[in-house]
Amino acid sequence: MRMADNPGITVAPSQQSTVSIQTLNDPEFLHILQLFKDIIASCYGPRGRIKVIQNSSGGNVTMSSLSSVLLDSLSISNPILELVKSGVQSHLSRFNDGGLFVALLVSTLVEKCVQLEVPRTVCIGVNTNMLRLALDYLESDKCDCKVKINFSDSKEMMNLVTGIIGSKPACCLLPREKDIISSLVLQAFLTSLSSGSKDSDQAIIGIIQYIKIEGRPVTDSHLMSGVLFEVPHLPTYKCCVSELRRCNAGPNQGLVKVAVYNISLSGDSDEFVEVQYQSVSDMSSSDMVVHKITNVVEDLVKQGIGMLACQKVIHPSIKKYCRQHNVLVLDRLSLTHIKAVQQVTGARLLSTLHTSISETDFGYLSNVSHKVIFGKSFLHMESLTSNVITMVICNRTEQSVQELKRVCENADVILRHSLVNPVALFGSGITESSLVNHLRKQMSALVSPVSQELHCKEGHFITVANAFIECLQTIATLASPMTQNTDDMELEEDCQLRLECNKLTDTPLDCYTMKINALKVSIEISNVVLQINNFIHDKN
Amino acid sequence: MTMDSVGVDIPTCVSICKSLENIVKKSIGPNALHTMISTATGKVLITSDGLTILKSLHLSHPIGRMIVDAVTSHHRITGNNSKSFILLLTELLKQIQHFTEKSTSQSNFIDRSGSRQDLIRLAHAFHKLQIEILPRGIVVDLLKSSTVTSVNQETHRNVKTTYQAIITTSMAGKLNPQTSEIFMNLVCDFLSTSVKETGCLYANLMQIIEMFEQFCVEVVGLPMSESRILEGILLQQDFAVTEDNFIEHSDDPCKFILVDCNLSEFKPDVDSTLNLETQSQLTKALEFKSKIMMRFLQQCQSQGVRLIVSTQRFSEMALFLCKKFGISVTHCAPEDTILHLASLCELFPIYDIQECLTSENVGVAKFCQLLTLGAHRFIHLGVQSEKLNIHQIVVCGPIHGLCRQYYNCVLNSVKSLKTWLQSEMVLRDLSPSELSIKKLTPGKQPIGICIPGGGVAEFVMYKTLQILKDSESDAYLKAAYSILGEAVLSIPRTIHENSNSSEYKQKSFICRLLEIKSLWDIEGFAMGVNGRNGQICNMAELGVLDPLVSKVMLLNDVLSLIQQILRIESMISVPTLKSSQSDLQNL
After folding, report:
1. Are the Cβ atoms of A276 and B272 closer than 8 angstroms?
2. B242, B243, B244, B245: CA torsion to nearest 10
3. Three-class SS of residue A305?
4. Which residue of B has its CA nearest to A12?
5. What is the pLDDT of residues B185-221, one digit of tens each?
6. Dist CA A238 CA A230 (whole Å)
7. Three-class secondary structure of residue A57 per DSSP
8. Contact check, Cβ <8 Å, B398/A9
9. Which pLDDT score, from 0 to 100, does residue B110 have?
């Protein structure tokens, strides 16, 4: 807003914000929204296509059809799309899946409602009511597109995983490879789950680590129990880890005892009192600390450890001492690996040199070996009790292996959510079609009460409600595996037929909690966008 | 460079106000549309809150700034009405402009000093109106249409229904109906579970508003429908370490201490140098920290402490030792949280770990659990207090901007309740006979006064001012009555304009006004404009209630500002001085 046209008043050079009114009906905005919708829609469903993203100065090429990747790399300047984007991202931060669905539903719904000749507050009211109707249906027992997940039914579990892996073209998977990856993901999830403690009824969910190998066929992907830690300094032509010291008595007989530190063992210490020091003779603090460390390590060796792992650096003399005593030393594990090592060994992270180390602070490994996998050296740590699984993912190109890893991670997150609420909805647009069907039937009952509640014309209600249903219809069409040219009615009939005949054994499944959240978030975001009248850009 | 003097005339002020009005006008009433504010850093906020919008404009015109400042100070107390403020001010200025134009044309004044005199006299008239008429005549008439609720344990039910209506009204313009219903229930539940004694409602509200950020937690990334009330308080950090069997003990009472110092850093207050002579002294220096810390943790252990809440970051060593002693730790807590916890549980935080730990340092929580909401993890601590049943409102929203909107909305509704109970502010000037209209006695019984919304208060003022105008002989006072009378109608007019049903839109506001006037004799002063459909109805029955105090304060504050504006003669702009030599010479 400028007031400069009032003569003689100096406008301060800083600050004033720009104001624009009625941005939603602006053709430019509609164009941007349309563009955004097209990008999202073309990624969605089994016929979704890959997007290649590169910045204008020719940087790294990213290939993906995942909403998380797309939204991260699209730099959006329009504030409303920015709003939509952050809404999608907040949904993804919880579920890692269904981002495209949210983005698509929001953009189609907003586009439709803006173009209607209906007051926006009415649109918002109708959308909320339609959402309630849809949620009531999905939550009710009458909903026939809902299934209870049976964790012992591998077929059903596979459908849940294929629901995520199936529609990601950037992974470049052949049908057989899809099955392999899906079963690996499922296997990894179930293994990490089942190895929790046996006496309590609480399931402890383990960690799944991913190792990416590019240039190998997908069929080479496999699972390994325990942790793989890349050690480039070990040669690939020779097995370098000799037999380690193992416990020779007690309950842990035959296992390798491990101590894990997360402080530096190289001679520096932040445990000194923070004052200046002055000494008469030539005393060195680092020598003193190394001496202290040596004492501690000597004690550890006496207690029978077979491996010493450290997040930071270990002093060479300590390493040498350990090697002489047949103790494997692993340092510079960094924050990324220390968690997995701690988990696989079950050790407590040691952070000081000044306490006695009790028996409970140690961890145990059943085996440590040097493995060469496709030309790379790895240290393989296995344990009988822990629940850490490593998934070695192979694919032909760097891009595709990257995408495959993301997809596997997403699938794992969804499986974990299903654990909390073991209910799923049919994918491939069947849920949406059945929702459309239900909403169409139930809409008429809502017409007069809702239009009274919203103080609007009945015609307005019907217009908006139809727009809402059309949006779901669009999504159903995109998600359906049938060919593009099928008309909506045919599609719906097909879905209905399949629902009635229970021919859904091969249909991919969607996580129920995710879908409900996606619906709620979409409508909430759409309503917020629809309620915007002015737009102020604060330049400060 | 010379100083610049610019005259300020009413048309300038009107044009500034008009542009402000244009921005906020659509956000008034229950069918409000919102404004989206984005910053250069990419933050987004969606709001219909007048003050937030006005502030985000960063006006550079001095008059504009003056107006925004006045709205800010008004909003700080009432938490509401900032859009009405702008509307009223704009209409007042428009009417004044109209008045001066008319008087200039009548008396054929050519120079502007004549109209300047007019303005000053008008300002005097407004002053008189503000000081004499508003607190007596207008308030008494408003009081007749108001509902008085005495607030004590016996009237508990009545109080609750009234505050429900006030909260709903406060939220109506800021959220869509379905959302506002959810948050209204949330705030009501929060108040009814938190407040132990209805008579203390006002004191409790003050306490809640003062530390509101501690009573209301925002969780980004969940749909709004996940918002809830929780007993105790949530700490916004995860555990840094937990004791070994934490999950099994999470329902048990948990002793905790608050630490506001670094456990593993001992810096002497002055620069010091340690003179080392032997190797063993160096070893001692190295072991000193862990020794002190272990001594402290032993004390904690002997007192049965299971949780340390700290503002400072704990070092790896400190965390390790705590774990070893079976104590859970959460660190990097905001200082406000610690102070809030300390004041609720009447504890002393620990500022130096070399001190002795006493029972006054140790608090007891009913439970201590890990709570996961969306992608965030919180520590849920069941603390208890004498004065209040401690609960928190958890406000969820899918994105940050929305969460903020909901949060502000909840805060403003609580503020609005506070103004409802500040009835003293309007009653203090009334005589006992005037108080007896509502069977009130002078004194300090806790009562809340509210008046139906939807323009009822404005219609009453309009009527009162009309009567006053007709019996007034002084030309300027007469003008002031008439100007204010017309101006207050702008509020119901805008509510009517924003109502969405086209069927009723065909009827203009004038028709509505006539309709209302005709109803005055039959129904009394309870009819207003329903903001949803533009129909005339009984607002009290509809459950639209505003605190009376905020209406009176609004009028009072607008009148103060208008007098100020009328008295402004010119603006002097002082050029910025540059330090370079040439500029100094130019001066």
Report:
1. yes
2. -100
3. coil
4. B60
5. 999 999 989 888 888 888 889 989 988 999 999 998 8
6. 15
7. coil
8. no
9. 47
